[in-house]
């Protein structure tokens, strides 16, 4: 039986899952175009997430500086702060209804991406926070949903690090890549389970 919630103590005792796939980092429009083409060529469900430099001062905000996509176990990281905005190829993929993309709290991601470009209209997205409700899952965070399904914990230690740093650490890259991969893992597992528990 699929649990609906996980307590903090139980969650903290779970083994930490780490990213074991490839990581591709795009820092220029040319690199972004190659990455987007590889994602399109993979013909698979795409994971989606973003990272923003944390602000520790009230009233200070930053633009999204990293967009993470995944195809299979490969994470593709688009460093918007180095590219200088959302490249046209990335915008086209986010707006392509034929490419299924899975994310969590995507409304917030889209709103924040709008700080770069107001004229962006994402299509083809599956919101995990809506999807899991159909299975009786009450948790809304990626890490806790993942823990319920796979009995492993996604470490969030890197979340509040500087995502605008000139060079991201290996731990930052692995964390960012896996968040996108985990979205698809969750979607795939729920799809495999078939009949939604709420209807059984």
Structural description of this entry:
Helix content is 38%, strand content 16%. It is an alpha/beta fold and 200 residues long. The protein has one domain (8-191): Ribonuclease H-like superfamily/Ribonuclease H (Nucleotidyltransferase, domain 5), CATH 3.30.420. Strands 1-4-3-2-5-6 form a six-stranded mixed beta sheet, sandwiched between helices. Helix 2 runs parallel beside helix 4 (88-94) and helix 7 crosses helix 8 (170-193). The longest helix has 24 residues, at 170-193.
What descriptors fit this protein?
six-stranded mixed sheet; Nucleotidyltransferase, domain 5; disordered C terminus; 200 residues; 6 strands; single chain; alpha/beta
Task: Name the CATH architecture.
Answer: 2-Layer Sandwich
Number of helices: 8
CATH topology tier name:
Nucleotidyltransferase, domain 5
Please state roughly what percent of the residues sit in beta strands, choosing from under 5%, 5-15%, 15-25%, 25-35%, 35-45% or over 45%.
15-25%
Count the strands?
6
* CATH homologous superfamily (4th level) name: Ribonuclease H-like superfamily/Ribonuclease H
- Segments where pLDDT lies below 50 for 5+ residues? 196-200
Helix and strand run: HEHEEEHHEHEHHH
CATH class term: Alpha Beta
Distance between the termini: 12 Å
Structural class of the helix and strand makeup?
alpha/beta
